[in-house]
Structures are given as C-alpha cells and as structure tokens.
Amino acid sequence: MIKSFLLFLFLIGCQTAAPTARMPEPxxxxxxxxxxxxxxxxxxxxxxQGRVLIQLNVNERGVPSDIKVLEGIGGGCxxxxxxxxxxxxxxxxxxxxxxxxPSTMIIPIVFRLQ
Length: 114
Description:
Blueprint (H helix, E strand, L loop, with lengths): L4 E5 L3 E4 L3 E3 L2 E2 L3 H7 L4 H6 L3 E9 L5 E8 L5 H10 L3 E2 L1 E3 L4 E2 L1 E11 L1
Antiparallel strand pairs: 1-10, 2-10, 3-8, 4-7, 5-6, 5-10, 8-9
C-alpha cells in the first residue's frame, strides 16, 4: 500500500519505579509500530497534520495499557495513534538484574502530508 504521508515515531520518555537497564520498545522496532498507523482519510482531506503524544503503561509481559492522548490534533489522528499502540506489543523495561519491570512511556506520532 502506498502511503501519502510521512509518519515519524520515536520514544521521548520512560519511567519505572526502579532504575532501568533497558527501556521498553515495540517488538520489531518503531517501524513495526509505524506500519500499524493509518492516516485517516478525513484528516488527509482536511489537511490535518501534526504530532500526537501518546502515554502508555507497559507491563512486565510487554502489554500496553492505560493508553491516553497527552496532546492531540483531531481529525481521527488521535484515535489512529491509540489503535496502533493498542495493537502493538513491547519488550518490557528491565532493571539492572534483567528482570522485566512495569514502565510508563510517551511516544510521539507525527502525521505529515507529503
């Protein structure tokens, strides 16, 4: 499928109760998460662009929960970002001993028309 937009993903922050040796990340990398995001047709037609900030918790099994939009742009983009994150799995954060620990992270998803 040809996409008529650029979508940039990168992790901006992560918090755990204990110091972490490894931060969580989507299984397959950020490109896997990117592939799950679909630019809503209504947003494309309306020329809506911008950054959606998503906050989520990742448990010890890598399952995301408590997903919410910290900053949205509307036009269905916020919901598209949530759907992509909800359908993703993550490698959990790990403490210094290598034990998986729950964490909270923020992921910005940028919707940009070409």
